[in-house]
Specification:
293 residues; two-stranded antiparallel ribbon; 8 helices; 77% helix; coiled coil; Lytic transglycosylase
C-alpha cells in the first residue's frame, strides 16, 4: 500500500503537468474556435475531461474572442458605409467638378457674349459717329455751296444792277443830250438858229435872226458856197468866201474851236458875228447896211 501511494505521488507531478498542458491546449483551441465562431457566427462546444477547467477556458476564450468578433462585426458593418461614403464623396466631387466646369463655361460664354456685345456696340458707335461726321461734312459742303451760289447770285445781281444803272444813266444822258441838242433844218433859218446857240454857249453877243438874215442876203444872197473874186480882197489874193463872205485870215481869227470850216454856213455865221461885234461894237451896227464890212 505504501508502495502504491508512493507510486501515485511519483506520477502526480506528471499528471498535473499533463493536466496543465491539456488546459493550455484546450484554452488555446477553445479561444481559436471561439474567435472563429464569433467571426462566423457558429457556436462551439468543448468536451473532454476536466469540465470545470474547460468551462473556464471557454469563458476565457469567449472573453478574449468577443472584442475581435465585435471589431470584425463593426468592420463588416462599416465597410459598406465607408464604400457608400466614398462613392458619395466621389459623386459629390464629380458633381462639384461638373458644376465648376459648367460655371466656368457659363462665365466664359458670358464673357464672350459681353465682349461681342461691347465690340458690336463699339462698332455701332463708330459707324454712327462716322455717319454723323459724314452728314455734318455733307451739310457743311451743302451750306458752303449754297453760300457760294448765293454770293455768286448776289454778285451777278449787283453787276446786273450796276450795268442797268450805267445803261440807264447813259440813256438818260443821251436823252438829255438829245433834248439839249435841238435839231436844226438845213436851210438859212436852221443855220442862223444853230449859230445863235453856239454864240450863246460861248458867251458872245447874239444878234437877232432878222439881223443875220439881212446881212447874209446882202453878202451872198443866202448862198453858203458863194465866193467873191472881183473885190479888193480878191485883188489882194484873199477872196471873200461863204455865206457871210469872210476872208481866210478873218475867219481864222474869229472862228470858235470845233467850228473851223469856212464853207460851213454855221461856222461862217459864228466867225462873222464875232468879228462884227469886235470891230463895230455890235453886229446890228452893220447888219442892215449895204456896204461891205
Amino acid at each position: 500500500m505504501r508502495h502504491r501511494k508512493q507510486s501515485s505521488l511519483v506520477r502526480l507531478p506528471k499528471r498535473l503537468s499533463a493536466v496543465r498542458t491539456n488546459k493550455r491546449l484546450t484554452a488555446g483551441v477553445g479561444a481559436a474556435l471561439l474567435i472563429t465562431g464569433a467571426a462566423t457566427g457558429t457556436a462551439v462546444a468543448l468536451t473532454g475531461n476536466g469540465s470545470a477547467p474547460r468551462t473556464a477556458a471557454v469563458a476565457a476564450a469567449q472573453a478574449i474572442a468577443r472584442p475581435s468578433t465585435d471589431t470584425a462585426n463593426r468592420s463588416e458593418q462599416r465597410a459598406p458605409l465607408a464604400t457608400q461614403s466614398a462613392d458619395a464623396a466621389q459623386a459629390a466631387a464629380a458633381a462639384k467638378a461638373k458644376a465648376d466646369a459648367q460655371a466656368k463655361a457659363s462665365a466664359a460664354a458670358a464673357a464672350q457674349a459681353q465682349a461681342r456685345a461691347a465690340a458690336a456696340a463699339k462698332a455701332q458707335a463708330a459707324a454712327a459717329a462716322q455717319a454723323k461726321a459724314q452728314a455734318q461734312a455733307k451739310a457743311q459742303a451743302a451750306a458752303a455751296a449754297q453760300a457760294k451760289a448765293q454770293a455768286a447770285a448776289a454778285a451777278q445781281a449787283k453787276a446786273a444792277a450796276a450795268a442797268k444803272a450805267q445803261a440807264d444813266a447813259a440813256a438818260a444822258a443821251k436823252a438829255a443830250t438829245a433834248a439839249a441838242t435841238p435839231t436844226y433844218s438845213n436851210d438859212l433859218s436852221g443855220w442862223i438858229a444853230q449859230a445863235q446857240a453856239i454864240l450863246a454857249a460861248d458867251g458872245d453877243h447874239v444878234p437877232s435872226a432878222d439881223a443875220i438874215t439881212a446881212r447874209a442876203m446882202t453878202e451872198s444872197s443866202g448862198n453858203p458856197n458863194a465866193i467873191n473874186n472881183w473885190d479888193s480882197n480878191a485883188a489882194a489874193g484873199t477872196p471873200s468866201k461863204g455865206l457871210m463872205q469872210t476872208i481866210d485870215s478873218t475867219f481864222a481869227t474869229y472862228a470858235l474851236p470845233g467850228h473851223t470850216d469856212i464853207w460851213n454856213p454855221v461856222d461862217n455865221i459864228v466867225a462873222a458875228v464875232r468879228y462884227a461885234n469886235a470891230t463895230y461894237g455890235a453886229f446890228e451896227n452893220i447888219a442892215y447896211t449895204k456896204s461891205g464890212y
